[in-house]
Amino acid sequence: MSKVIAIDGPSGAGKSSVSRIVGERLGFLHVDSGALYRIMTWQALARGVETSDPEAVAAFAPTVEIECRPENGAIAYYVGGEKPGDRIRTPEINAHASQVATVKAVRERITALLRGMTQYGDLVVEGRDITTAVFPDSPARFYLTASAEARARRRQKEEVEKGIANQSAESVKASLLARDAIDSTRKYAPLRKADGAVEIDSSDLTLEQVVETVLAALPSEWSPNS
Known about the structure:
Layout lengths: L3 E5 L6 H12 L2 E4 H14 L7 H7 L6 E5 L2 E5 L12 H11 L2 H13 L6 E5 L2 H5 L5 E6 L2 H15 L6 H17 L12 E4 L5 H10 L10
Parallel strand pairs: 1-5, 1-6, 2-5, 6-7
Antiparallel strand pairs: 3-4
Helix pairs in contact: 1-9, 2-4, 2-5, 4-8, 7-8
């Protein structure tokens, strides 16, 4: 059976960077579950679906065809034969993604996709309900968090480097906090720290320190040195 490292936490806590490096160190495939919700949001907006209408989103969810392929140490996603790229990383997508993610039909569709990825091998999966709903039985579950200020700085820096936005740190912080509120209060699979998950506050830690903390907490037989 495939090994799964499950990593949850709010936006900007460092899940993506940590997951990628941990995957590289262990030879696990990195899985960005958030990209799947962004793809659903992107397609909903492109097709004129009202994202604030749960029934409309639920009816639309099964129609999106997403192909998952293991590539270069990660699971890559294709829609219509193309990778979405930064089209799913815009402020517009950010503004609508949490609404789309509250819809049960969307979460069930994506949960099924994520669980099916174990056919490709060992995984390190990042998201917001991976430790609680998708892989709750994994012996390697982590909750990454950080202060709102630290998360906002990281997200703003990321957006500027990618050339996809030019928001102030305060605007980014407000957006993150708004998404936190939606994610943590939604009815289905809300964002929360799972019982038994290892919590890591990365506010004052370097990326390498967080990675080492994760690796040190893995089952001994999963260690890269075992």
